[in-house]
């Protein structure tokens, strides 16, 4: 970090000693996993910078935004429409965390057998490690999996600022109606928290910003179909992770610049791996920052991760919002419809996800699917059964992994993944 931010962190209320420890571990991990990669695109410099300032410059920007009267809205799920947050001039920040620091603190409140993502967001708050949580004016939960639903009750006792959106479990007419009403209620809640009115003009502007971000991410994803892959899976994952907390307009411009460079690479046949190296699709639970574990193992074994069928991946940006609305109510209808195209395993049935896995395997020319579920993430662990059938029908091998954020199973995972990659290679 270029500057000393100790005073700012202290003002925010972080635990300075624990936070220093976290920053040191993060810095080392980033150096070993990211900066050690070969042939990285120049355009990744921006994203390296963002990471180096993840608790520095970006936090300073958010503090400034708050002093100018803007509100900070924290979210945990891609069903929560960012457009509405931007329509009230809010700053939208994804709060999921991907490291097991603070887990001991979290286990004082929630069972040990809770998924690592939930433990991490609780743990980061309880250990005084997350400046983003501290700066939020509203934290938006949602009734997706049981773990999150119940954890939000406790998180509200701790933070006093959780608002929960009720997401249905099925996408029939009743579920759609209910969700449309929830979107309306959320819009009212945002107006109450910010004191700003949601207008048609504001929604049009916000929709353009968020759709442009989705288009940039779609572009990045499409470019990964090239052989050799023009960018590592690790770097593409990082861009996706940063999309949840960077300024959306700047992020879009930088992602498009990166894509321009990748297009040039593809034209001359340049890439990050050898042409013909093994291509893998990852499918399953989201990988919040700094969860780089699986990509690091796979790419450390010489294969390329060419796509993520995940919320930190295509599930987040696959569909654009239909901008053909001419009133606030119509915009809310469209927001409700778009979000219900998302194929989270919390829904039943969830056949769209299986179609999307198959489509991604074909489009990205993946030779194998690694299904990634966080331990105790019942929806994705259960859905692995159907995901395997889909991979079988698509004609590619499938490996099912359940893990958490700890490094204890790195060796065992490396062995299993190595054998899986060898099996793919032996198939030719
Ligand atoms: S739309 S995947 S972001 S709910 S990993 S906490 S599901 S037990 S994060 Fe998610 Fe929205 Fe769905 Fe996406 Fe529960 Fe599983 Fe933990 Fe999870």
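Sequence proposed for the structure above (428 residues):
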């Amino acid at each position: 970090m270029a500057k000393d931010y100790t005073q700012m962190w202290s003002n925010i209320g972080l635990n300075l000693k624990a936070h220093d420890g976290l920053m040191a571990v993060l810095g080392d991990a980033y150096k070993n996993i990211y900066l050690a990669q070969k042939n990285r695109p120049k355009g990744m410099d921006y994203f390296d910078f963002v990471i180096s300032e993840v608790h520095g410059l970006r936090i300073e920007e958010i503090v400034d935004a708050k002093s100018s009267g803007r509100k900070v809205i924290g979210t945990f799920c891609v069903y929560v429409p960012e457009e509405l947050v931007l329509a009230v001039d809010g700053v939208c920040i994804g709060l999921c965390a991907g490291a097991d620091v603070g887990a001991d603190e979290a286990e004082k409140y929630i069972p040990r057998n809770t998924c690592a993502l939930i433990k991490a967001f609780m743990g980061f708050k309880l250990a005084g490690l997350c400046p983003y949580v501290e700066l939020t004016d509203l934290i938006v939960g949602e009734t997706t999996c049981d773990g999150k639903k119940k954890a939000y009750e406790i998180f509200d006792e701790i933070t006093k600022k959780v608002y929960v959106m009720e997401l249905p479990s099925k996408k029939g007419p009743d579920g759609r109606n209910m969700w449309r009403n929830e979107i309306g209620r959320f819009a009212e809640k945002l107006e109450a928290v910010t004191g700003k009115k949601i207008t048609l003009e504001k929604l049009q502007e916000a929709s353009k910003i968020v759709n442009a971000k989705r288009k940039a991410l779609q572009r990045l994803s499409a470019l990964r179909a090239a052989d050799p892959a023009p960018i590592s899976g690790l770097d593409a994952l990082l861009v996706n992770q940063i999309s949840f907390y960077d300024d959306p307009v700047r992020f879009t411009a930088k992602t498009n610049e990166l894509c321009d460079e990748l297009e040039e690479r593809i034209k001359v046949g340049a890439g990050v791996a050898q042409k013909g190296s093994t291509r893998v699709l990852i499918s399953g639970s989201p990988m919040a920052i700094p969860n780089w574990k699986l990509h690091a193992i796979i790419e450390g074994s010489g294969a390329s991760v060419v796509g993520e069928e995940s919320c930190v991946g295509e599930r987040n940006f696959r569909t654009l919002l239909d901008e053909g609305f001419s009133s606030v109510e119509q915009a809310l209808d469209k927001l409700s419809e778009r979000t219900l195209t998302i194929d989270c395993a919390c829904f039943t049935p969830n056949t769209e996800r299986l179609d999307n896995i198959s489509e991604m395997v074909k489009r990205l020319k993946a030779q194998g699917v690694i299904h990634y579920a966080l331990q105790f993430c019942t929806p994705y662990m259960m859905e692995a059964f159907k995901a395997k059938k889909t991979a079988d029908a698509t004609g590619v091998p499938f490996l099912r992994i359940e893990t958490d954020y700890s490094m204890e199973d790195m060796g065992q995972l490396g062995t299993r993944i190595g054998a899986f990659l060898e099996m793919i290679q032996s198939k030719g």
